[in-house]
Design brief:
heterodimer; A: mainly beta; 6-stranded mixed sheet; 0% helix; B: 114 residues; mainly beta; 49% strand; globular
Chain lengths: 112, 114
């Protein structure tokens, strides 16, 4: 069965710190990869996605993610976080014919 | 452009009561989905509809039924609510393209079953 792991359940950072959130998946075939963000009290919004091509993907609000096929990983990064980045972040994986599988989420708190 | 809308936003039920959660999308998407979100478990797929007229079970379908009323609307019904169904429910839609499919989510319904 396909699974998606986000190892950091809670992350606390100060403003201007760098962020890296881990995401690993168990399926070795062709996959599509996504990061969604859920701000407090809001619905999920797409941050970025990878389908093919350049493994370094840039998304909204200064976020980026790198697909490393050999490590089955798609880690999310941001060089300098802001208080407004406080949210829950979800990694999701899809392969052809299969539904989207979400990781358990990482709650990020950014202290002003 | 409203995207994906859901009603109601909040609901409290007693065990054994029934209710229907409504979802509509205005993006002309083929596929629609119902998820539940529970702490530490991410989102889990309850049911989905790959296209108008079809529905299929997802990861956690027990206790739920769905209806794809037309291309725009996809409802989720709880026939006899149980406390284990206390959760936040999200509807999503996508164009259904095989490899470039991206799902867009509604604002959610927070359901409490007492």
């Amino acid at each position: 069965a396909q699974s998606v792991s986000q190892h950091n359940h809670h992350v606390i950072l100060s403003e201007a710190a760098s962020l890296e959130l881990g995401c690993n998946y168990s399926y070795g075939g062709t996959v599509n990869l996504f990061w969604y963000v859920q701000y407090p009290g809001q619905h999920l919004q797409l941050l970025l996605k990878y389908f093919s091509g350049d493994p370094l993907v840039k998304g909204i609000k200064g976020f980026e993610a790198e697909f490393i096929k050999s490590k089955f990983s798609f880690n999310l990064r941001k060089p300098s976080v802001q208080w407004s980045d406080t949210a829950e972040y979800f990694c999701a994986v899809k392969r052809a014919g299969n539904m989207l599988t979400f990781g358990g989420g990482t709650r990020l708190m950014v202290k002003p | 452009n409203a995207g994906v809308t859901q009603t109601p936003k909040f609901q409290v039920l007693k065990t054994g009561q029934s209710m229907t959660l409504q979802c509509a999308q205005d993006m002309n998407h083929n596929s629609m989905y119902w998820y539940r979100q529970d702490p530490g478990m991410g989102l889990r797929l309850i049911y989905y509809s790959a296209s108008e007229g079809t529905t299929d079970k997802g990861e956690v379908p027990n206790g739920y039924n769905v209806s794809r009323l037309n291309k725009r609307e996809f409802s989720l019904r709880l026939e006899s609510a149980a406390p284990s169904q206390t959760s936040v429910y999200f509807c999503a839609s996508s164009d259904g393209a095989m490899m470039t499919d991206t799902q867009y989510f509604g604002p959610g319904t927070r359901l409490t079953v007492l």
